[in-house]
Design brief:
It contains 2 helices and 7 strands, in the order βββββαββα. The chain has a domain of 96 residues: Hypothetical protein apc22750. Chain B (Translation Initiation Factor IF3), CATH 3.30.110. Strands 4-6-7-5 form a 4-stranded mixed β-sheet. It has a 3-stranded antiparallel β-sheet with strand order 2-1-3, with no helix packed on it. It is 19% helix and 36% strand.
């Protein structure tokens, strides 16, 4: 799976190459524009979670318009990479929904074989990230969501 890196034009919103100096659509300067990195597969697997907005997922710093709200740790395991990734994404979307977060930034994904029994080894992916909250949703309270999670 390839990681998608791009710059979003601050004037027209178009995605451009991560090395672009000017927007291909409107010509605006992209000299000091942040490079975004999308987590591969974040939106390709179906889940049973109904999120009204697509979560913001970036390996880069917290995007403008978002604030740090919580730390996020998620594990996904499976017989192969695809199955582990699918589980990781389902779990990530669940955690974002439970904690009332709009996405993650500064993520790292670690790969590790996990021995589930003497005869079986599963591939395990571990994601560590900063949970972020959109300024337009700032009135949400992630702490209340954490309390609900502990009560489950």
């Amino acid at each position: 799976m390839l990681v998608k890196r791009y710059k979003r034009c601050p004037k027209c919103g178009s995605e451009n190459s991560d090395t672009a100096k000017f927007c291909l659509k409107c010509g605006a300067s992209l000299q000091n524009v942040e490079v975004f990195t999308d987590l591969p597969g974040a939106n390709i697997f179906e889940t049973s979670i109904d999120l009204t907005d697509t979560p913001t997922i970036t390996a880069g710093k917290i995007p403008d318009g978002f604030v740090l709200a919580a730390s996020v740790e998620v594990i996904g395991a499976g017989e192969n990479y695809t199955e582990a990734w699918k589980t990781l994404m389902r779990n990530l979307k669940s955690i974002l929904n439970i904690k009332g977060l709009d996405g993650v930034a500064n993520y790292q994904v670690l790969l590790s074989p996990f021995q589930t029994s003497a005869a079986e080894t599963k591939l395990t992916l571990m994601l560590y990230a900063d949970g972020i909250l959109s300024m337009k949703h700032k009135n949400k309270n992630p702490q209340k969501s954490d309390e609900k999670e502990g009560a489950l």
